[in-house]
C-alpha cells in the first residue's frame, strides 16, 4: 500500500498530533500538509510587501538578551540550555537578534536607499508556558511567523505598519475566518500602534470589548480609557496575531542604523509583527468544526478531495476502482487539486464506514463511488462539506463539466 | 526600493549567513531561498517512495532517551534544557521518538497491510559539537532530513533500504554533484546495511578508502576487513548522507509492532536514513566555487538569472531600464524561472562593478544591459557561469528564441 502514493496510507491521515511531552506535540502527516499550505499563504502575503525570508537561529546567546534586559523580564518563561561557554536560551522572539544581524552584517553600508527593509521567518519558537493547555492553542513549542521592519522615519514606519495590517487582513480573509482587530495596550512600547487580531470563540482566553455602534474593539488593557465599559459588548477571543510599532527602542540598543543622504548614522524606526501559525490552525478548527467532524478552511485542508472506493471484494469493487482511477487522474491534472486528492481504499471497510470517516476528517469534497456501478450506468455521490461558497461553485462546475455521470448531493 | 520585489534589495543578496554564537548561524535571504529549493527537491524524492512528512518536536523528554540508553551514550553532545518537570534535550535524531509515536498512536491498529510505512521530516537538529568549524560544515544547529522506515520482514526492509539508496543517488545526481557511497561500519547496529555518502573534497574530515579496480569504497572503520589497506586509494570526504538498517533494535524497545494476518503483534523491521541539508549546501559550494566567485548547483541557486542595469543616470540607463523590464517579464513567465530572476539596479555602481559582483555571487546566468543601448540597436551581453550543460543548452535556446538582439558570450 505504501507503494501507492494516491491512498497515502489512510491510517496516517486520521492522526493530526501526537503528544511528545506536556505542551509539546509531534505533527503528523495531514497537519504538516496543512501547516505547509498555511506557511505558503503567508509567504505570498509577505512577498506582496517585499519582505524577505530569513531563518534566525533558535539557540540564542545570553549577551543580546542581557543588553535588552529581557533575559530577566522573560524570567521563567525562557527555556535555557546547558550549551557551550555562555548561557543560551531557545528564542521565543527575535527583536534583539534581527537588530544585531543587521548592525553586524551591514554596519556602515545600510543607507536610506535600502529602507524600507523587511525581514520575516516562519519557524519554531519556544516558551515555557506554566500551564500549557488545549493542544496547539497554548503550547511550549510552536510555529510562529515573525516580521521585523526597518524605516527611515516615523511616518514611513506608520506606512509600513498599515501595509502589514492590510496583508494580515487579506490573509485572514483568504482563510475565510472572521477576525476582530482590537487596539492593544501601548504599555512599555510607546505610541498607539499596537493591535491584536482575535478569532472570537468561546474557548478564547482573552477578553475583547467591542463598541456595538462603530464595531471598534479594544483589549482589556485599553478599555475605560476611551469608552465606558458598560456601553461595550464583551466577547472571548483567541489571539492569533499582534502588530507593534517599536520606534527606536531596539535599534538604538543594537546600533541598527542607516546612513542619511549626508552620511549621518540614524537608528532605524522599527516595527514587529507576529502570526501564531499553529494557533491559527487550531483556532480555525475550533471555530469551524461541528459535531459531525472536523472542518478546515479549504485553502489549508490537508487534502481537498477524498475518493471513497467500494468495499474490497464487493460486486461494485472492480468497476468502482476503474472509475476512481479515471477521476483521480482527471482531478490531479487540475492545478487547484494537484497533490490534493486522496483515495480511501481501506481494506475490509464498508462504503458507509468510509463515508462517515471522510466526514469526520472533514475533506471539503468527498466523492463516493458506490451505488449501481456497472459498465452501462456509472454514477457516484458527491458530498460537499465545505463552508466556502466560492470553492463549492468551482467544484460543482468542474464536476458537471467532467463527470456528467455523477449526482451532486 | 523595497516596494520593487524584482530587485529584492540587492544588499541582502550578498549575505548568506550571519553568526549567532559559536557554531550557530542565522540564515540570510539567499541561503533560505536555496535551502527551500533543496528541501523541495528532497520532498519530491521522498514522494517517490511514498514517504510521508511529519514534524517531530525538537524538545524531547528524557524518558525515551533513558529507555534506549542514549541519554548517557550521547553524553556531552546532547544539548539539555531547564524545561518543565522532567529533563528535556534538543533532539539530535528521532529513532526513539518516531517509534514511540507509532506505538502510542496506532497501538493495536497497525497491521501488516499498513507496511511498508515511511515517515520523514526536514527540520532543525541540535548537537553540542565540541569543536564547531568551517561554517555550515560542522555546526551546533543545522537542518537535517531524516527518514524512518518500518517493514514486516528483513527482506522487505532490505528492499526499502535499496529504494532509499536509489533516491539518494538520484538526488545527488540532480544536484549534479558527484558522491561516493562508502560501506560503513556495522558497529552496534548489526547487519552489513550501513553506508555513508561522501562529497570528496580537500576540506573533508573523513577518510575514505577506494579500490582503484572496482570503485568500491569503505570508510575507515571498515578497511582491512575486506581489502588490504595498501591496495586502496585514500581520499578525504565530507559525509553528507548516512543509511542504516536497524532491524528490531528500537521497535522492540518501544513496542512498535504490527499485527500479522493471524493478529499476532510482531516488532517492525526498521531503517533510518539521514541527509545533512545545510551541510550538503555548504559542501556543494565548497566543491563548485572558484577563485572568481561562488558557484551553485543550478537547481538550488538562490536566483537563476541576474539582470544587470546600466548605471543610474547614465546615457544608457533609460533604454536599459525599458529592456530590463521587457526581459524580466518574459523570463518570469517561463515556469523554470518563476521567482528566479533578480535585477541589479544598485544605485551609483557601474556596470563593471555590478557584473563583477554578480560573478562573485554566482548567479548561473547574468545578462548585462550595457553596450550601445538605443532604440535602433539594442543588445545585451549574456554571461553563463554555470557548470550544468543541460541548463546552459536550455537557457541558450530560450535566449535565442526570445531575444535575438542579444549576444551570447
Write the layout of secondary structure elements.
Two copies of one chain form a homodimer.
Chain A: E1 17-21, E2 24-27, H1 29-48, E3 52-53, E4 59-61, H2 62-68, H3 70-74, E5 79-81, E6 88-90, H4 95-106, E7 117-126, E8 141-151, H5 154-175, E9 180-183, E10 194-200, E11 206-210, E12 217-219, E13 233-247, H6 249-253, E14 257-259, E15 265-267, E16 269-276, H7 277-288, E17 305-308, H8 317-332, E18 341-344, H9 351-361, E19 365-368, E20 381-384, H10 389-402, E21 407-408
Parallel strand pairs in A: 3-7, 9-12, 17-18, 17-19, 20-21
Antiparallel strand pairs in A: 1-2, 4-6, 5-6, 7-8, 8-16, 9-10, 10-13, 11-12, 11-13, 13-16, 14-15, 19-20
Q: What Rg of chain A do the Cα atoms give?
A: 25 Å
Oligomeric grouping of the chains: homodimer
- Largest inter-chain interface? A-B, 72 and 72 residues
Largest sheet of chain A, if any?
Answer: 5 strands, mixed, barrel
Taking the alpha carbons of the first and last residues of chain A, their distance comes to 30 Å
Structural class of chain A: alpha+beta
